[in-house]
Amino acid sequence: MALFPIAAVIEHRFPHRTITHSFLSTAIVGILAAPLWVLGWHYWAALVIGQFLGWFADSFTRSGVSAFWPSNVRLVIPGNPKARLRSGSTAEYWVLGICVILAAVFINLASAGGITESFAKAFFSDTGTAARMFNKHGSDRVIVVDVVGQNVATSQPVQGTFIVIEATDRDLVAESRLDGNLYKIGNAPDVQIQPSSVKTTVGDRVSVQAQPQALRDIGVSDWLKRVPQNAYVSGSLLLDEMGDLRITSPVGVYPSLRVFGGQLEVSNARPGQISSQLREFWILQGQVVIKVRR
Questions:
Q1: Which of 4, 73, 121, 279 has the most CB within a 10 Å radius?
Q2: What angle (nearest 5°) sits at the alpha carbon of residue 269, between those of residues 266 and 275?
Q3: Burial category of 278 from C-beta neighbours within 10 Å (exposed 0-12, middle 13-18, buried 19 and up)
Q4: Shortest CA distance to 268 belongs to which of 167, 194, 127?
Q5: Pick the residue with more confidence: 15 or 252?
Q6: Is the pTM of the predicted complex or chain greater than 0.85?
Q7: Total Cβ atoms within 10 A of residue 43
Q8: What is the dihedral of CA 248, 252, 258, 260, to 10 degrees?
Q9: Cα-based distances in Å from 237 to 215, 220, 260, 263
C-alpha cells in the first residue's frame, strides 16, 4: 500500500512485465535501497533479492518477462512451451508453495535457526521461549525479558524489564532493572512471579567468566574481599555456629541464601547480600562458583 502511488504511475506508463520485470529494475532498487546498509547488509540483500525473485519467477510463465528492458527480447523459461506455467493455474501455486517452503528451510539453516527463533519470540510470549534464548545465547549475549504478571507472595501486579541470569527448561531467574532484586519467573511451585506475558530480546554482547572456588577455614569478610562486587555466587557453605544463623530476605523476592541440609545454599547471590547476612561468620568448608558478567 505504501508504494501503491508509485506502482500506479509505472503501471500507467509501461506495459505489464516490462521495466518492473527487468534486471534494470533490480539495479535501481539496489541503488535506492543503499541506505539500508546502515541497519545491516542483510536488510538490503533481502529487499533486492526479494524484488529480483518476484519478477524472475514470472519468466517461467508462458508470456515471460522483458528481463533485458529496454530491449523487446523476452525471457521465457523453459524452452519447451508445453513445460511453461500458465498464470493463475493450480500448477503455478504448487510451484510457489514449494519454493516458499524450500526458501524458509534453507534460510533457517543458514541463519542457525534464526527464522524459527524470530517466530517463537514474536508469537510465543512465554518463559519457555526466553529460556531457550538464554540457553542458546546467554553465554555471550544479554537476554532481556519484559514481563507482565503477578507476584505470587504479595499478589501485586508486575510489569517491568529483567535481565536473565539463569534458566531451566521453562523457568527463569532474572534480575529486575527497577529494584536490582532477583526473581524466579515461571509456573513452577517456587516462583516469585507468575507471568501472563514475557517478551524476549537478545541484547548486547557480554562476557561471562565462571570461576570455581574451594573454601576452607576462612572468614566470610576476608573471603569476600577477593570476590568482585558485580559477581554472582552460587554453591554451598558449611559455617561455624550454624545454629545461630538467621537468614532474612524481602517478601516475594528470590531466596539467594537459604539453610538446607545443615549447610548454607547460595544461589546467584551478590557479595553484598552475603556480607550483610554472614559478615561475622567463619567458613569451615565450601564449594562455590563465582560468575562475573562484563
A1: 121
A2: 95
A3: buried
A4: 167
A5: 252
A6: no
A7: 14
A8: 130
A9: 8, 10, 10, 6
